[in-house]
Amino acid sequence: MKIMLKTDKIKFSYAREKVLRGIDLEIEAGSFIGIIGPNASGKSTLLKNMSQTLKPESGAVYLDHQLLNDYSSLELAKKMAVVPQDTEVNFNFNVYDIIMMGRHPYQKRWSGLSQEDKKIVKEVMEVTDTLKLRGKLINELSGGERQRVIIARALAQKPDILLLDEPTSSLDINYQGEIYDLLNYLNQEFNLTIITVSHDLNLTAQYCEELLLLKEGRIYAAGPAEEVLTENNIKAVYNAEVLIKTNPISKKPFVTLVPEVNRIKKSKQKDFKIHIIAGGGTAKNWLYKLENLGYQLSIGVLNIGDADWQAAKELGIKMVEAPPFIDISETEIQKNRELIEKADLIILSDLPFGHGNLANLEVLFDYPEKRKILFSNFDIKKRDYIKGKAEKIWNKLLEEDQNIYLLKEKDNLISKIKKLEN
């Protein structure tokens, strides 16, 4: 692939404050790159050094294999366009005139607008859906409309590469999606190379081909979102505890900040150990609550890919897992026993039973001395898919075990646990 933009060990400082500390990168033509990182990591400064707004104190920037400093301002404007973070316009021009300003690099002194200028401006207005705003004044527009106009002005330059600094920072969520949809369209349909700086990890993850994660003026990680947005990377760069989930639609990583109560739970972790037997998503909602309260949790046996398995995996809960669609093996049963033996309390959710997971119910007979909470929101008959076998085991368990506490829909799980804990 052709290298469109390259930086070679660029460094930059504001007075005595070092901001960029030797940035090396190569950006291929047609890429869609997101630059992310915390405040003061050098994101916007890097973008400005790549666009000739600032000049590196050492190192070099190359555009299309030519030193950036060798381009005249007009030559550079024909190859590179920049959408700044501040899109305010000092004079209240109408939309058409604002976009036509993008044709300035192609216009000769004292000459009027050419047919080519008008043709290109019409084309970019169609692409950016700004034709309907043609006669409006720029200060009459909403934030999302204004951003589309500024992008249209940049596109009127007919650049090979588009640089954007926080293009959605002041926009509502609906406009944020619209802007990134537009950028994605420009990248896919016109092979436009796009580099965007953003604080929004999830937006960039969903749309950008690759991410560049900065920390203190250096590249900490670079590559596809799946490789860059990891819990360890976010912890190291942002000093934040997060959960990384998968967006069910885009299949891209989705970052969720762990609540403060969860972040401090390690220092307040309880000695009380709870083993959970669940499946089918019957426990996922209260797993998070128990984890946040500091209980030491374990769970099993869960099928890989199950909703409860996913929740437990995200929370880092000790777990016994098994392949789906086959019976639980003796090895998995034994691993489950080892976790149960360490527990102060066993919780059985109102999961359905079949041949594959019946061992999760049968194992409770071996621990009559341990306290157990059994969910009974739904009749066991409706959860028995093996012709009454699970119902028979359930009823026998209730008859013989004196340490069972049934939990119905109106009961509070947390309150019941606290009573048993004390």
From TrEMBL:
GO MF annotation, one: ATP binding
Domain ABC transporter, residue spans: 5-241
Top-rank taxon, per record: Bacteria
Gene3D superfamilies assigned to the protein according to its UniProt record, in alphabetical order: P-loop containing nucleotide triphosphate hydrolases
UniProt keywords, alphabetically: ATP-binding, Nucleotide-binding, Translocase, Transport
A Pfam family matched in the record: ABC_tran
Family matches, as CDD domains: ABC_Iron-Siderophores_B12_Hemin
Protein name (database record): Iron complex transport system ATP-binding protein
The species this protein was found in: Halanaerobium saccharolyticum
